[in-house]
Amino acid sequence: MDRTTPPLRERTAELLELRESVHRGPSERATQAQHAKGKLTARERIDLLFDKGTFTETEGLRRHRATGFGLEARRPHTDGVITGWGRVNGRTAFVYAHDFRIFGGALGEAHAQKIHKLMDLATAAGSPVIGLCDGAGARIQEGVTALAGYGGIFSRNVRNSGVIPQISVIMGPCAGGAAYSPALTDFVFMVRGTSQMFITGPDVVQAVTGEEITMDGLGGADPHSTSSGVAHAVFDDEEECLENVRFLLSLLPSNNRELAPQVAESDPADRRTEALLDLVPADPRASYDVRDVIEEIVDDGFLFEVHENWARNVVCALVRMGGDVTGVIANQPMVQAGALDIQASEKAARFVRFCDSFNIPLLTLVDVPGFLPGVDQEHGGIIRHGAKLLYAYCDATVPRVQLIMRKAYGGAYIVMDSRSIGCDVSFAWPSNEIAVMGAEGAANVVFRREIAASDDPQATREQLVKEYRSELMHPYYAAERGLVDDVIDPAETRARLIDALRTLRRKHADRPSRKHGNQPQ
């Protein structure tokens, strides 16, 4: 036996000391600088994300092997990204977290390979991946190998799309090519004041276009949650943001082969919803907040709204009904009368496709006057963008239940998951009006000559509008033709919807054999 070899206890002590050094990070000064920006360190974020004591790190001792530009003298452990897995509410999830204290969180070859391996592990385990993004983009000193590292991440984002949930949490800069990975994931969360995402920064924008703008004004949380639609949700601090990531994961299945986790029923399924009789005005032109309707019919009045501040004329939310997770899509009469436009169509279409990917049933609440008219909408491509929502619903195989509350006019009625495009069960309230267009507009078209030739055009128009409404727009017209399964008492809405969703929970639909569809762009 070689007496010069240190005993295993000494080797183990060296390991523990090395691990402690890695956990502390590069220096106390770097940690203080991170905190001074109002940001937590990568390890502090991981501690908030996972159940206490459950995180297991992978490749914590990894170091880069690049040379040149002084890199050979700077080889910190982890290479600026912490990877591993843990439990969130008792269920496994995987994470990679950029450590801004090391190379500004910039991605190099070893850094990228750690993320690649982590994503592959998540795929094999069938568990979600969360990216805590706080990095300065590609590591310039490593050149094209850094860019290739991004390519490997992007290809895995696409491969995992619809297979395991992918959540990106922007907690610092995310610029250039780095921004495309979050764009490929299912959800993007941002933090006000510290998160920025953009392809080209303010300096480049000013040099090319002459426009002056701050980093926050260009790619901060608020512009991305209100104007671009890049951010699904924004929060005031990192603690609140990570708590909401944990909550979102509690609503999602671990992968596309499972159903979303059920919880014990905390709100009676047969609870009457008498309040709906007063919440929704009978006058189809009167406004109301559809979120009040959603809160009345879902468990405990709680909804997790997606894109709350973007395309607000449609509401998309994850809720529980009878303990089961359901995706709700609802027209919002408070904004543009609930008409569908380009942004609302895109927002709802992607939400429908996400829910369908992960076996989450769909509930569609309809109160839509049509597609928003206008030159800007037509030239902006409302035809192809509206077709995205139509495609998403037609392609969905999860349980689909529709409730028509008031008006449902024209092509927008068809697009909002009508029976004709595959809705499983359709209900309507006694206030429903399903027609090609409103009675006044229809009368002006159908009876144009009679009105023009009348001695009293106004009186004639009013009479003909009344006749048209009584014959073609009464609340039972669609039910008589099998386009609505039942006209229900609004007070029974919750009970009827939950019963339908439970009945359809194990729905199976065969798809035609094909590589994939070619959805509208």
Automatic annotation (TrEMBL):
<dbReference type="InterPro" id="IPR011762">
    <property type="entry name" value="COA_CT_N"/>
</dbReference>
<dbReference type="InterPro" id="IPR029045">
    <property type="entry name" value="ClpP/crotonase-like_dom_sf"/>
</dbReference>
<keyword id="KW-0436">Ligase</keyword>
<feature type="domain" description="CoA carboxyltransferase C-terminal">
    <location>
        <begin position="268"/>
        <end position="515"/>
    </location>
</feature>
<feature type="domain" description="CoA carboxyltransferase N-terminal">
    <location>
        <begin position="8"/>
        <end position="264"/>
    </location>
</feature>
<dbReference type="InterPro" id="IPR011763">
    <property type="entry name" value="COA_CT_C"/>
</dbReference>
<protein>
    <submittedName>
        <fullName>Propionyl-CoA carboxylase beta chain</fullName>
        <ecNumber>6.4.1.3</ecNumber>
    </submittedName>
</protein>
<dbReference type="GO" id="GO:0004658">
    <property type="term" value="F:propionyl-CoA carboxylase activity"/>
</dbReference>
<dbReference type="InterPro" id="IPR051047">
    <property type="entry name" value="AccD/PCCB"/>
</dbReference>
<dbReference type="InterPro" id="IPR034733">
    <property type="entry name" value="AcCoA_carboxyl_beta"/>
</dbReference>
<dbReference type="GO" id="GO:0009317">
    <property type="term" value="C:acetyl-CoA carboxylase complex"/>
</dbReference>
<dbReference type="Pfam" id="PF01039">
    <property type="entry name" value="Carboxyl_trans"/>
</dbReference>
